[in-house]
From TrEMBL:
The keyword Signal applies. The keyword Cell wall biogenesis/degradation does not apply. It comes from Bemisia tabaci. This is Uncharacterized protein. Keywords: Signal. Residues 1-19 form the signal peptide. Gene3D superfamilies: PEBP-like. Pfam families: PBP.
Length: 219
């Protein structure tokens, strides 16, 4: 799928450059611009409103990130700080585009985790890993190292809306990650995960960028 995304990304970039006759950047898209320019105070308010703080984090990252799925049209579907994305056909494949503010010489780790997989009485190792890419230079995630292959949300029936969070960490350098690589949707290692423990293990510090959405079981 990531090779298909790369092809489509190049195709859309060329098409948009031709239409606008200016160098293409994601911020030329109004929705993308709105997401990436979100005020840090508003971002923190959203994280507290949807209880990402304190259920996952103690404090807010300094900037937003953007995650955008293709949905059969030209507009796509975005994660927008707690919006609902309930169509499993949209999120079945990995997002077509990820972006955050950075420079092209910095390496990053990106995670997508579910934080409502276990009852609230569990305080550690309660997350489920849906996607982990490391050694991402700039925000070129397709060229990064996939530790956990993408898996779309799978909220169980009668559990209501579950939260899915994207986290981006700045790495000190290109790193060697000694982790079991996960590809199967049913791999038991997806569960009992802690993004904080993972970040601590590799000295990643606190997440620098974030976004999240919610999804419920669809019949």
């Amino acid at each position: 799928m990531k090779f298909y995304n790369r092809f489509v990304s190049l195709f859309l970039t060329v098409r948009l450059v031709k239409l606008t006759e200016v160098p293409f950047t994601s911020t030329q898209n109004v929705k993308m611009k709105d997401v990436l320019l979100k005020d840090p105070i508003e971002l923190e308010e959203d994280l507290k409103y949807w209880k990402i703080i304190p259920d996952l984090l103690k404090e807010a990252p300094k900037q937003p990130m953007q995650a955008w799925w293709l949905d059969g049209g030209w507009t796509g579907t975005e994660a927008i700080f707690g919006n609902e994305i309930n169509d499993p056909e949209i999120t079945a494949e990995e997002p077509f585009w990820l972006e955050w503010k950075t420079n092209n010489d910095t390496f990053h780790t990106m995670m997508m985790v579910g934080i409502d997989e276990k009852p609230k009485k569990y305080t550690t190792f309660k997350e489920k890993q849906y996607w982990i890419i490391v050694n991402i230079k700039g925000f070129d995630f397709l060229a990064g190292e996939y530790l956990t292959e993408y898996m779309g949300p799978d909220p169980p029936e009668n559990k209501g809306l579950l939260r899915y969070v994207f986290l981006v960490y700045r790495q000190p350098d290109k790193l060697k990650f000694k982790e079991k690589k996960i590809s199967s949707r049913k791999d038991i290692y997806r569960t009992n995960f802690s993004s904080k423990a993972f970040a601590d293990k590799y000295n990643l510090g606190k997440p620098m960028a974030i976004n999240f959405f919610r999804a419920r079981f669809e019949y």
